[in-house]
Amino acid sequence: MYDIKNYHRADNISHAVALLEKNPTARLLAGGTDVLIQLHHLNSHFEHIIDIHDLPELRGIQCDQAGNIRIASGTTFNELINHPIAQQHLPALVEAASMIAGPQIRNVATFGGNICNGAPSADSACPSLIYDATLEIASPEGSRYTSINGFHTGPGKVALAANEILTAFHFKAENYRDKGAASFKYAMRDAMDIATIGCSALCDIKQGKFQQLKLAFAVAAPTPIRCKHAEEAARGQPLTRQTLVTIGKAVSHDVSPRTSWRAEKEFRLHLIHTLTERVINVAVMRAGGEII
Ligand SMILES: Cc1cc2nc3c(=O)[nH]c(=O)nc-3n(C[C@H](O)[C@H](O)[C@H](O)COP(=O)(O)OP(=O)(O)OC[C@H]3O[C@@H](n4cnc5c(N)ncnc54)[C@H](O)[C@@H]3O)c2cc1C
């Protein structure tokens, strides 16, 4: 049924890196929910497989005493959604993860696979961007760390060398503590559908003003993006409807959605403006404020 030419089962992370070194054209298989579709489509780039599914080192969520959270890349979305640390501190990530596919897929699909697959529609990308996740990557030289902001380089492309593995996501306390965050997804169906537009917002408010806004969109450009113009337009502004209008105008300079069989560009632009207001409203409420 599947056109697999070579299959290697990794025993641990270093073994997986060594196997990648030896087989530079091989693809990692985590939950396999994207890889097996590619194989089914007889995509020749997926014929050589290195299986990292269920490696204990790639599972689990921990929080240190300072509140810094580490989520191993092979953590499934169901594990993430049901984990008290994620529920308490990373609500926008849990919200987005809960909207992925259906329960069966969420039981096997991993957070790392969703990001490394590089799809512009990946539901976990926007919350990772607004929480400024740091990625821990294993390579033959050891571990390196890089920001999720800039990791997506094009549709289906991420800044990962052929011999590297994403091992974990780090969420620093300073990037979520005392802030409000939310995620929204618009899809044509309520379940088992890829986002027509997805978004996340995080805000820090002081004395009735936006101290900081972080806003991210999926399917609004060739990669998931942060909206720098919109974020700048919010800085220091009061929590009013007029500020939301200003942010909404600025967001037009950040996005470049396209027409596809799923939706027209114009409809996506309409969704972007509507969701900008909604997601910021909820993020502000969760930060203890109110748009008046
Ligand atoms: C029916 C269905 C519905 C879906 N609905 C949604 C949806 O609503 N929203 C959504 O965002 N996605 C959806 N998906 C896509 C998919 O489930 C996710 O992208 C999933 O999170 C991928 O994770 P995985 O563990 O299955 O990855 P895999 O398929 O194992 O791998 C995906 C890619 O990432 C690479 N990779 C995996 N792990 C690592 C790692 N640790 N380091 C480096 N590279 C790695 C693989 O080599 C491969 O290129 C859906 C898929 C299906 C089949």
Give a written overview of the molecule:
The chain has helices at 13-22, 35-40, 77-81, 84-89, 91-98, 103-108, 111-116, 125-130, 228-234, 241-251, 265-286; strands at residues 6-9, 27-29, 48-51, 61-63, 69-72, 134-139, 142-147, 152-154, 157-158, 165-171, 180-186, 197-206, 209-218, 225-226. The strands form 4 sheets. The chain has a 5-stranded antiparallel beta sheet. The protein has a 4-stranded antiparallel beta sheet with strand order 11-12-13-14. Strands 1-3-2 form a 3-stranded parallel beta sheet, covered by helices on one side. A hairpin with a 2-residue loop joins β6 (134-139) and β7. α9 (228-234) runs antiparallel to α10 and α10 (241-251) crosses α11. It is globular, with a radius of gyration of 19 Å. The chain has 292 residues and is an alpha+beta fold. The protein has 11 helices and 14 strands. Flavin-adenine dinucleotide binds next to β2, α2, α7 and β10.
Short description:
By secondary structure, the chain is an alpha+beta fold. The protein contains eleven helices and 14 strands. Bound molecules: flavin-adenine dinucleotide (FAD).
SS content category = alpha+beta
Strand content: 15-25%
Mean pLDDT, as a whole number?
A: 96
Q: Helicity level, as a percent range?
A: 25-40%
Largest sheet composition: 5 strands, antiparallel
N-C termini distance:
58 Å
- Any low-confidence stretches, pLDDT <50, length ≥5? none
Shape: globular
Write the H/E string, N to C.
EHEHEEEHHHHHHEEEEEEEEEHHH
- Order of strands across the main sheet: 4-5-10-6-7
For the secondary structure, the number of strands is 14
Bound molecules: flavin-adenine dinucleotide
